[in-house]
## 1
Amino acid sequence: MSARNAPKRNGPRVSAASLRALAGLVALCFLSPFAWAQAPASATDPMRGTTPITATTRPPLLGNAVNDDVRRPRNYDLQPPTIPHRVDGYQVDKNFNKCLDCHARDNTAFSHAIPVSATHYVDRNGKVLTHVSTRRYFCLQCHIAQDPVRPLVGNSFRNVEAVTSQPTPQTAPSPSPASPSKPK
Amino acid sequence: MIERLRRYWTIIRRPSVHYSLGFLTLGGFIGGIVFWGAFNTAMEFTNTETFCTGCHEMHDNVFAELKSTIHYTNRSGVRAVCSNCHVPHDWTAKMARKMQASKEVWGKVFGTIDTPEKFQDMRLELARHEWARFKANDSLECRNCHNYDSMDFTRQSVRAQSMHTTYLASREKTCIDCHKGIAHRLPHIPPGEGPSDTPGQVVPAPDRQATAAPPASSTPR
């Protein structure tokens, strides 16, 4: 830009190119929400089915939780184990924790339940307590009873073992799935 | 007035002089039936749910809690009312329990638990009374419906099987030892104050944590 043109830029005369660019920007601002709104209208939401957004869906049947007491393997490291039994009506509040009736470490000799992990007896400052820490107290925040239902939304998650073993021609199960020495 | 009372008194003192023996026998018999029927009807009325939930102490606290449990609502619609669990079915034991329950009338009159706060404060003590009663009579009120001999263990979950075939079968434990708080919410049981025969558990109490924290921090394990 030359110094002669500089004062003119503050005036009403704007170049045609910049005006066109501005118009394009404004148009984009107005049109993009519509483009966004158009997309889900055509696709059917697996949770809602074909029910229009203004109508109320029919609630799905209540499941009956798995109650076979068979421990499920974890899908990934540090996953909270799922609950292999029904927990309907379990009281977990400030007065009482039904889960700990069997799973507290002191009670497992009697109940033969899986003891609560020792990490749950440590508070956030690293102090070891004689009882379950308050931050670990509400079991059902992480541990969930399972319903044998078809997933509503597809999930392509594969655990580390599956990911690392797939590219290799031999499909021998590795003893240590997360070992870095394993060839890709 | 005095004259009339005196006349009644002479009749009541020696009724056989004034009435025939047949009339007295028959009248006593019929009167006995009427009295017995009325007595038992009144006694049965105090066993109904309408009677129990007639006062707000029961209606707003324990009855409200019962409604969400399996003893009130379930798939087959068979349900228990208050007296099924809290009053013995056997007549003698029932009379004894009813006489004990006269203390509850006292409590009602003087408002022992007439606010939710008072109820929560009394709750552990009240629960302990019931636990002790169930423990003493081998959970008789449970067993009135849940008959051990009719239990098909193969239809129970693995967990329930393992408990019932060991602890219940050996009579080492009775129903209430494990099945506390199934019809009402459980109160806070302070550590070490739970009944000795239950697995028990410790709920983290804020004051307890505060006192336990300093020594724990100085000695990391």
## 2
Amino acid sequence: MWLKFEQRTEPSVLMRYLSPLIAVGLMLLSGMLIFAMLGKSPVTGFRIFFLNPLRDTYGVAELFLKATPLMLCAVGLSVGFRANVWNIGAEGQLLVGALAAGAVALHFPNSSSPFLLPAMVAAGALGGMVWAAIPAWLRTRFNANEILTSLMLVYVAQLMLSWLVHGPWMDPEGFNFPQTKLFQPHALLPILVPGTRVNAALFLAVGALIAGWVFMNRSFMGYQMKVAGQAENAGRYAGFSARRAIWLGMLVGGGMAGIAGMSEVAGPVGQITEHISPGYGFAAMIVAFVGRLNPIGIFFSSLLLALLYMGGEQAQQYLALPYSISNVFQGMLLFFLLASDVFINFRPRLAGRRK
Amino acid sequence: MVLSSVSSIVAATVVAGTPLIIVALGELVTEKAGVLNLGAEGIMSVGAVAAFAVTHGSHSPFLGILAGLTAGAAMSLLFAISTLTLLANQVASGLALSIFGVGLSAFVGKRYESISLSSVPPVVIPGLHRIPVLGPALFEQQGLVYFSWALIGGVAWFLYRSKPGLVLRAVGESPVSAHAIGYGVVRIRYQAVLFGGAMAGIGGAFLSVFYTPLWVEGMVAGRGWIAIALVVFATWRPLRVMVGAYLFGGCMITQMFVQGSGLHLAIPAQFLSALPYLATVLVLVLISRNRSTIRLNSPASLGQPFLPDA
């Protein structure tokens, strides 16, 4: 007996939406297997990793707090991914956005203007866009592969951030810790639920999801992006510019990532440190794929990935496992998703070995 | 005095370039078969931690290298199954492998942090190491440095002078034709991916067992990605991989250059650390701006899925 795949006459819509659920199921199963292999009870592991984080209002608020930057980054990335624009440097764009927004906050330490926060959002978006414009320009002008250039710029952004907080931007009264001054109250996003950390950036994220949905499903440009991604030749014959698709995909992705960076420094972090993001820009790629590059899907998958981050914290605290178990789960999830996506275009069949 | 510092700079450049050569040659063979595996960063990380763990336990660097090789091949098997059997997108699967590998290595490696291995004495080549300046720089090195040189010759010979190498290139250029003649495209691609993974695993082993020698989370620091860029820079030719790898190796040890020169430059350390990444971008731009160079040299089916009997 041999497993064979037969091409379906048309892609299965059912499998397209079932596949993420299969992937989550497989991730849960292998997660429990990992717990068992580490000598922990799989049931306890499951409870602590996936249920414990949400046991109270604070936990649920934290879930939405951590999902916010993921939603922002993922909806921006999905615009590019639809057109096969592979921006994998969202983490760097997030950091540069955080730096730009932080520069505004630190430059106006006494301002109580209601425009301070909007200016920070704009600066964050601009910072992210500038960082994303570099690979876009190198790709359209010099044909340089945007996957590699956008990723290299993540390392450059991290080093730039490190230099700023160790050097020019370091808080002189901060006992030599690599961090800036704390932002003043008017440069911090308002908290939505008292006693928690979830803040107004959640509205920005949901707004971005709605805008993303309208753009992708109701605008001509969104349609052009989709065609450019799914049928390159058709797009070219129709006169849709590949160059514009690259610019648009990169700039939207970078801008959104920049806003996500702003939401972190003006939210839970409250200053610029070397630890602004636990890899949100990379996790957002998984969010985008698991959410089927669709804003509604991204809403739910960002909550799932946020839960994986929180589960890692719980596992560290109660199971004495390294926090990086979150990344193991994230990677497994994406792998299982890509593997089960085979059933969208193919039908499995058990065939006898040919004689 | 000057000569000995030249010698030590050459030696350090060679050491820094060695993992890049090994990983990039593995990736080159994979890509020549038409498969784009962007998972090198993750494979190297897992190879590094596996090699470190085994060397720490067995006190045998050789077993450590074997562990890195095995772990690397196992990681790339995941990639091969998803892209070659399940026909998943190669770019996305490579990213998944990178994310998974970096996470897995951090998870497994947690308990090995803040342990360091005793450094492995170099292998001295008798006679040659007496050459002034270059002798100590090139011929008092770790065994894997010599391995990387042999690998360049081996890969070049395999690809351009052997029958299986010819078949592998044919699979990369036109899988449909190769399949029609009767070659097992998927089987050959599996082998190429496994070879690439094994080499990336050895590259990781070199970092954690010979280079540093310790395990720190994130120690691969983008070398996997730089190795992939190196393949483009080398326009898919083995000898040029060596040139590029030593160029990047030189970039990576600029801090040593600056200290060795005795100049007290007011350059923040972060700028020097950013050099290899900026150099990668620059090099990609220089090579890629001539579109025909890329089109003529890159394997024609690179990144395309292949389904036999479709």
